[in-house]
Design brief:
Layout lengths: L1 E9 L10 E5 L6 E5 L7 E2 L12 E5 L5 E5 L9 E7 L2 E5 L4 E3 L5 E8 L4 E9 L2
Parallel strand pairs: 3-4
Antiparallel strand pairs: 1-2, 1-11, 3-5, 5-6, 6-9, 7-8, 7-10, 10-11
């Protein structure tokens, strides 16, 4: 099972967890969880006016062996309005626009989508339960 939590953070609310959303999916091959502004396809949805987040921004997908990966999907613009970074324990790395990174089996961490033009972000925590 992959469990996700998402919090919205703006400049004055750093560290706030108000409005936290949660979603989960079993670790079965082909299972998908999406994060973005499109309520029709995303399980975790950001405010409509947070345009630094694409309609479908992040996609978590379970592979044939029960492991999960996250992809920063390319949007309609050639250059993104945000930066995405993945943190697992002490280790942090940027996620490339259009890039995919495997998540640790049985691990946890956080993905931060940071607006490039203002002090806003969405923080998506993940926990892979085995």
């Amino acid at each position: 099972m992959l469990e996700l939590t998402m919090a919205f953070v703006s400049g004055t609310d750093a560290g706030a967890t108000a409005g936290m959303l949660m979603a989960d999916a079993p670790s079965t091959p082909g299972a998908v969880l999406r994060v973005g502004r499109d309520r029709a396809v995303c399980r975790l949805v950001t405010p409509d006016d947070w345009l630094f987040v694409s309609r479908v921004h992040l996609e978590f997908q379970c592979g044939a062996d029960g492991t999960w990966q996250v992809t920063w999907l390319r949007g309609s613009q050639p250059d993104p309005s945000s930066e995405v970074r993945l943190t697992i324990g002490e280790y942090a790395q940027p996620l490339a626009y259009g890039g995919t990174v495997p998540l640790p089996r049985g691990g946890s961490g956080e993905i931060v989508v940071q607006d490039r033009t203002s002090p806003r972000s969405i923080n998506v925590g993940f926990y892979h339960e085995v």
